[in-house]
Amino acid sequence: MDKVILFLLKRKVILYLCTFLIVLTGIGALFSFHVELVPKTNLPWIEVNISGGALPPEEMVEKVTKKIEQELKSLAGIKNFSSKTGTGFSGISILAEDGEGEKVKQETQNIVNRLRNEFPKVVDTVTVTQTNLGDEDLIDYAMVGADTQTMLTLLKTTIKDRIESVPGVKEVVVSEDGFENKVAITFRPERLTAYRTTAADVVGQLQGANWKKAVGILENPGFDTVVMIDNSLKNVEEFKAILIKTPKGKVALEQLAMVSDLRGSVKDAISMTEGNLFVQISVKRAAGSDLITTQKKVEEVVRQINDEGGGNYELRVMFESVSFIKKAITNLSRDVVIGGILAILVLWVFLRNWRVTMVIATTLPLSILMTFIALKAAGYNIDMVVLISLSLSIGLIVDAAIVVLESIYHLREKGMQLKQAIVQGSKEVIAPVFASQLTLIIVFLPLVVADFEQWLKPILHTIAFTVTSTILASTIAAFLFVPIFSERFLQHDKQLQPRSEKGKTGIVSLFQRLLLLTLRHRVLTLLVAFGVFAGALSLFPLIKIGNGLNANENQIFATLTMPDGTSLEQARTVAVEAEKALRELSDVNQVFFTAKKETVELNISLVTKSQRTQEKEEFMQEVNGRLNAIDGVEQTSMTFGFSGKSAPIELQVAGEDLEVSRTISTKVEEMLASIPGVVNIRNDFERGKEKVTLTPNQEAMAQLQVDSDSLDSQISMLLGEQPLSTLSQNGIETSIVARFPETWVTHPDQLQQIMIRTGTGSQVPLHELVDFHFSKSPITIKHEKGEQIITVSAELLGTDIGTAGRQINDKLGTVELPAGYKIEIAGDLKEQNNTFTQGIIVLVVVISLIYVIMVAQFGRLSQPFIIMLSLPMALVGVILGFVVTQRTFGEMAMIGLIMLVGIVVSNAILLIDRINLLRSRGMELEEAIVQGTRDRVRPVIMTKLTAILGMLPMGLAVAEGAELEAPLATGVIAGLIFHTLVTLVLVPVLYSIFEGIREKRLARKKAHRIADL
User: What pLDDT sits at residue 643?
Assistant: First the structure.
């Protein structure tokens, strides 16, 4: 290493050129990054959705769901799968093994394609999709102001095309499921009877009345002419005027049926905000497009559209994450800059020498720019996780540089020539610095390979890569750039004085006196340390435990459930009252709702964090209380940050008989209700609908000459809608359907009396052709790995998932279960258990790897063990930090704790290495301990303070993004503060005890050898 440094000192221009290239390339990389919320990656979650027709759930299970599940059981690479089947639909969720997502998706697609011919003919939609983190959703708008038909027409024609033309936009999806898009021909039964015709005759004529087709081609030299006959109808009035042949002559359709233009009318859901109906559109961005730039362009187009509307209609922002991302990215970028400035100020305060400070200060931007180059080369972008990683690293970047420069400066203070001090100082610390830097990097190896939850792994990989790149960059800067910059900045340093002339600084003297005191009372010191550790452990139950990352803290999604039989209008009334109650809260910005029969979905956007008047927990309690106080609301569920996220508490009851499972789920609900803080308890069991099964009487049908197809078509005509054709206007296709009035047949008794035309031309009641069987049909059927389940869910208010989880585990055994039935923990509670189990395993592996590195560094087992004994004291700081701040200890805090292990041992390595070096030069044990600690007080305090202050802006958590960064910073800062004292006091005391015992043992052996002579 000394030869490399000497070479570079002679060829400084090489380093200056490298510096220029790093600055140029790093700035180029910085300005080429796209901005994201979180790292984008495909997750091993595959969704299979199959729909079509109105087949009852049990038939969909047998003919669709079970067929696919049977194939999935034998498919390699699948961890788990579950399904939900209802009337006319089947949804299957698959969790693949790590790295197998793309393969499992393709094989699942092949299975579905192979089985599709065996599905019922009414199945018309089959999709297989893979979930990703950092998805393509950009912004959702709600169009208000005009009537719904006008808004739908505008959205599906001009507005959709205009927004899709914006660079970076992939597509615009218009949500029209809640609105009709059809023209309904409703028969008047009494008129059909009067004209002695049937609905089937009318339908047959209507299907032939609206058509367009090519009939030939006129071929000519140089050109061809297509001949087309267009007999298509252009508007609803033309349909009304169609002449229908009847036994009493031709008659206009409107005489036999009521023709209604239902386009834009509410179907089965009402979407409103501030008393106005709205139509929702979702803007999706293209892969690789920049989030902020694309949305800015979309907002400009929307602003033009609103201006052109002249107040007749308006597009309002319903959901978007860019404003949150911009604030969060700005805040985190500010934190990085402030952290860097604070770190440099710490150096200046301690060194009181601007030249020395400048040497280290130059390594900070260089290391960050090298990190940007590495991130760009690896395909990363700027997101919250990357910036959190940089904030975490900002105080660690200068650690190696401080140690190297302190070693050089220490020799200069003793009077050594500058060049010799640079070479000798760098050489003295190269081994311990490399070992300490390696301990910071090695913690990520088990972290990235552990079996954490799938959504967490991309975050861990990003943190691991970013911090590792930063540490490697800072190590390169410390050993290549610091020596050269030292030669440049320190050669004219007039402030340099021999240390003996300076005397002892206050902080060094303070620690020296404290160390001498503890060395005189070593046993008492250890007892105090043990007592502090035991006391901290007793506080552990006071820590709030949680999991899940609310990346977007500005959105709340709530669902209100009402009693069975609640009408759409009653649900709308409840939704309006809920909106009114929520808008009274000052922290609420906008409220949008969609009311359906028996449920209401609320989309609540909040003001920015700096404008809020209530803490998150207090605000959620207020919202929950207001929603539950509304008349007609049976259950409430809420999620913060993500739509569709599962409840924090989920318990699954598995068994064959749904009624038995329902009884067990009721007991589980009663058990959960006895736990403080567990609220909004519900299960997803839905009582079945009444079902009538018609079994054809083959003898009667043969006698009356009625075949199965004729029976099916006539019943379908009477009970459902018969598609006729389509009406095309402005490029929008509208379905034309024929039906009987909804009140025509509403009861099974009426169904028995409907008249069926026979092959002989006569009509007979339906009950003469079929047998009626009455039963119940389940609304939905849910499976987990093929087993039928009922899920009991709940939210938490005023407690944390750790506290609630411990009580649930204690009480779960009190629920009596029949043979063949079981209760399993699921959802966030299961994730938490897995996360903490994996976290403990990772922590043990990290400590083991660090121990191996230290054994390699010191060549002994005892001295690394001394450092290991000091690690529990860092945990004391972590516990105190979370107890005092009452922040949630979750996944990010776990990452911080694991990183803390690597950070705190680094300075202990440097301290013990210094003591060993002094002893190798002939110093006695105690003198070496005191002098070595004294030599390391300044670099240890500086490195710890730079790390702490570098992360302090993150730890203050005053703006958007704080939910993600604050727990991590809290753990690291609190652990570092407490362990600083440990490093400079407890480690020397432990060293004194272990090495004292070793010296006595060696002395006895030497005495025995002398005696033997």
Answer: 44
**Whole-number pLDDT of residue 497:** 52
Task: Give CA separation, 613 vs 177, 379, 610, in Å.
Answer: 37, 40, 8
Position 870 pLDDT exceeds 50: yes
Cβ contacts of 632 within 8 Å, gap of 6 or more:
562, 563, 566, 570, 573, 574
**Taking the CA of residue 265 as centre, how many other CA atoms within 13 Å lie in the half-sphere pointing to its CB?**
8
Mean of pLDDT values over 461-477: 89
| SS3 of 100-137 | CHHHHHHHHHHHHHHHHHHCCCCCCEEEEEEEEECCCE
Determine which helix (DSSP H) or strand (DSSP E) holds 812, and give its type and residue range: helix 801-812
Indicate if the alpha-carbon torsion angle 476, 481, 482, 484 is positive or negative.
Answer: positive
Distance CA 236, CA 735 (A): 12
Radius of gyration of the chain (CA): 37
Secondary structure letter of residue 711 according to DSSP:
H
- What distance in Å separates the CA atoms of residue 139 and residue 319, rounded to the nearest whole number? 6
Give the closest residue to 474 by CA, choosing from 429, 431, 437: 437
pLDDT tens for each residue of 165-217: 999 898 899 988 778 888 899 999 889 888 888 888 888 888 888 878 888 88
SS (H, E, C) 923-974: CCHHHHHHHHHHHHHHHHHHHHHHHHHHHHHHHHCCCCCHHHHHHHHHHHHH
400 compared with 736, residue with greater pLDDT: 736
The pLDDT tens digits of the residues spanning 989-1007 come to: 888 888 888 878 877 877 7
For residues 505 and 751, what is the distance between their CA atoms, to the nearest angstrom?
A: 99
Residue 377 and residue 380: Cα distance in Å, rounded?
8
